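Each field is set out underneath.
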Amino acid sequence: MADLDHSSPVLIAGGGIGGMALALTLHQIGVPCQVLEAVPALKPLGVGINLQPNAVRELYDLGLGEQVLDTIGLQAREWALVGRNGHDVYSEPRGLRAGYRWPQYSVHRGQLQMLLYRTVLERLGPQAVQLGQRVVGYRQDEHGVTALVESRDGRRHEQRGRLLVAADGLHSAIRAQMHPSQPPIQWGGAIMWRGTTPGVPIRTGASFVGLGSLRHRVVLYPISPADPQTGLATINWIAEITVDNSQGWTHGDWNRRVALEDFAHHFADWTYGWLDVPAMLRGAQEIFEYPMIDRDPVPTWVDGRVALKGDAAHVMYPVGSNGASQAIVDARVLGAQMLAHGVTSQALTAYDERLCADISALVLRNRGAGPFGLLGLVDERCGGVFDHIDDVIPATERESFMARYKAAAGFAIETLNAAPSTIPHGARVGAGG
């Protein structure tokens, strides 16, 4: 088979946040690409997420700066943990207030995906994204890779490319082929109910608040500015309990619409002067149930000319605001390695060496509760009942705990602020790359 010419595209399986970020990165460095997305039409689905400053920096470098991101989200000002008794466990400023050169954003996942999608179409053209095309497998040779693609009507065809990058999520067919003996999806027993409710923002007005205990908590944060007329913002919330997981996940769907009555009793008396949790739950028009799941890490994200990224590589518990952020960072590191090694399998290997081990460790750290582990320490030391948190966990211990997490997740302030751009301004892959 003849070698592919240098106009042959990098194939991207999946048009989520990670896939679109990679398409924009490849366009930035002059590498043709083709996105293959399974759904017939992209819609702004999902719930609230946080983008850490390390990911926001990369979006800025893609030309998606503050003026753009402020249209879809809110710059976060604080991250706080509060005990079940309503007393503060830990709080710290976030984003610009913490000294980062870039903000942290609270956004609706679907709005971010649609922003990236629109930008891909504007910059790469409408042909850059093929909808209704699911990559179900691959084969490769020394010259390139062939994606096996299935259309919505069940017809199959093949598409050749120089490389194939799997950004096809939790149920990635590419990962399944690359690691056929991988263990099944791992569920640790936590069940999350998620929704959005109009409400008055608390604390700073842009605070991420985790309230309760390690195994029984509510997380809430605004994902829009407060309306000047009503004072109400869109509050994203997650209500969570941990149950016995010995029988596995028995509810069928991985996400399903549920009624408030299915779970509200777990939080019936969670009322405080500054927050009425039952009222917040009642205010949601739609509520969805999700198991908190991840996958055991795999030893490599690369097979020759094929690489995994985003959730296909490292789906993790949503406890540290890392999932979407890391998917964006993956894309940028991949681009940087193509600048260094060309559009080659060597670039994929360098990407794997740069990220796989460290992010696999982060997956396991998040499985161990991530930053919410502080609430676990409170449970262990005082059963969650305290008047002054310093009597339970000294301030220096709390700060050290969080510093270790931020370093592991790649957004330690001093390190991030001092780091050079992942993709130097104006850098492009050479004609022979």
